[in-house]
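Backbone-to-sequence.
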């Protein structure tokens, strides 16, 4: 049993709040720690620390910031096993899956190390006669991130390395379900030489989220989570004059054309639908079977899914760990119950999965529905569990129409050997991230991550060039040095 603190001004500081939230091991269902639910006094301490640090950090040259980030990257890499163990213990995902997600976070740090180049502005000589103009990127000040339980390392690392590289200070509010990884990431950054107060971590629930939204000193909020909460944060943070990037829910479709390589398709679906117990915003939750491919597709996916090993994430042979909480387990089970009531064909039922020695763990097995229709709730809603819905359509046009008509627009993929079909799909699908013969089209750090429609609120995606733009404000300077000739006053807009 352990009790967490906040990380403020380079050290662990106990919350002044009396409220706390239990931390559970999802594999056993046992309580393993307590997370403080911070209050306004705690946030004021964090803001004071951040404002003071910003005065010093913002005048560091980009090259000096890059060197601190480079040391940080090395420290995170050398502590990969420790971080993965923390993720697995409080989230439940397998150690190898945790390592993979942390590696994707490290890639953002690597990208941020190029900040001397990324912050370069634009220069135009002679925009008018003997007049030059150029732009400069400036940090915003104090920025904040509110992150979900499913990626306690990767998603924060989509945010704070870029914000800090741009010269900002960053306040992280991790999920109260698994906050230990965030604390360790902050400690490692201090070890790398980051000045105290540049990166603070405050634990809490909705109360602290609302205080972050209301705090005038905080200039921007980055968020990843459900669409309902993303909307709430976007609307209220904008009302408080903050920049917002809020990533919401998803219902990712994988379209299977009749000419696709079925072996590749099945492997892709198995990993993308059931990996991390489906608790990924880029998980494949809908397989769209085009034409006569459906029967064989369902049979093959069902056969492979039945031999997946569902066990604690610490089991090196585990393919899939438990869900995050008992409440979420019941939510996923209820959706499966609903799918049966709605008339979908339950091909594989994971509701009654039991693991000897871990009977109180939050385990559920892979679940497959066939003959799902677009009016069913199991199709419309994000279940966020290892539940795959198969929809059968007659043609490619039916498939892309189905993809485009859904309220979410996070990610989608198509499997085909037809270049014309693939090109049409990538061009005309109204989705933010698209894959061709790739099941989970998550962009690398030097591209931007973000969906369309109700999967993203705000004008900027995560990391890549859009991340740099989000965490900076631009100043444009127009300059002319006087000559000995006085041309007199001008009363018209200069045009040459």
């Amino acid at each position: 049993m352990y009790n967490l603190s906040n990380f403020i001004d380079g050290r662990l500081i106990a919350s002044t709040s009396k409220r706390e939230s239990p931390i559970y091991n999802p594999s056993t269902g046992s309580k393993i720690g307590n997370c403080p639910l911070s209050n306004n006094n705690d946030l004021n301490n964090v803001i004071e620390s951040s404002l003071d640090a910003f005065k010093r950090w913002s005048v560091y040259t980009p090259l000096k910031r890059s060197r601190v980030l480079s040391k940080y990257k090395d420290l995170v890499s050398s502590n990969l096993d420790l971080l993965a163990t923390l993720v697995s213990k409080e989230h439940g995902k397998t150690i190898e899956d945790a390592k993979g997600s942390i590696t994707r976070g490290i890639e953002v740090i690597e990208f941020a190390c190029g900040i001397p180049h990324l912050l370069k502005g634009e220069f135009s000589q002679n925009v008018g006669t003997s007049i030059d103009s150029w732009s400069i990127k400036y940090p915003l000040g104090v920025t904040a991130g509110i992150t979900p339980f499913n990626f306690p390392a990767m998603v924060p690392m989509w945010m704070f390395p870029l914000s800090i590289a741009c010269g900002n200070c960053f306040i992280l509010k991790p999920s109260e379900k698994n906050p230990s990884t965030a604390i360790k990431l902050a400690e490692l950054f201090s070890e790398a030489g980051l000045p105290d107060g540049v990166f603070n971590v405050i634990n809490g629930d909705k109360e602290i989220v609302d205080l972050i939204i209301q705090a005038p000193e905080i200039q921007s909020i980055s968020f990843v989570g459900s669409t309902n909460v993303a909307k709430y944060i976007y609307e209220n943070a904008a009302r408080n004059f903050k920049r917002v990037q809020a990533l919401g829910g998803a219902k990712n479709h994988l379209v299977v054309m009749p000419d696709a390589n079925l072996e590749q398709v099945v492997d892709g679906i198995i990993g993308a639908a059931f990996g991390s117990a489906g608790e990924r915003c880029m998980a494949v939750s809908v397989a769209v079977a085009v034409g006569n491919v459906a029967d064989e597709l369902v049979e093959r996916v069902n056969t492979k899914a039945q031999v997946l090993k569902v066990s604690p994430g610490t089991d090196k042979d585990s393919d899939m760990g438990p869900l995050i909480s008992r409440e979420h387990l019941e939510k996923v089970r209820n959706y499966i119950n609903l799918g049966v009531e709605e008339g979908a064909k339950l091909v594989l039922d994971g509701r009654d999965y039991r693991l000897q020695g871990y009977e109180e763990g939050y385990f559920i097995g892979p679940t497959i529905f066939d003959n799902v229709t677009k009016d069913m709730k199991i199709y419309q809603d994000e279940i966020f569990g290892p539940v795959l819905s198969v929809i059968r359509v007659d043609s490619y046009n039916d498939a892309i129409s189905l993809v485009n008509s859904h309220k979410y627009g996070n990610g989608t993929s198509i499997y085909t050997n037809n270049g014309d079909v693939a090109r049409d799909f990538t061009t005309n699908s109204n989705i933010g991230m698209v894959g061709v013969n790739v099941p989970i089209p998550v962009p690398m750090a030097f591209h931007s991550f973000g969906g369309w429609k109700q999967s993203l609120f705000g004008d900027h995606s995560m990391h890549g060039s859009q991340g740099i733009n989000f965490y900076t404000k631009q100043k444009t300077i127009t300059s002319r040095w006087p000559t000995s000739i006085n041309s007199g006053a001008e009363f018209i807009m200069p045009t040459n």
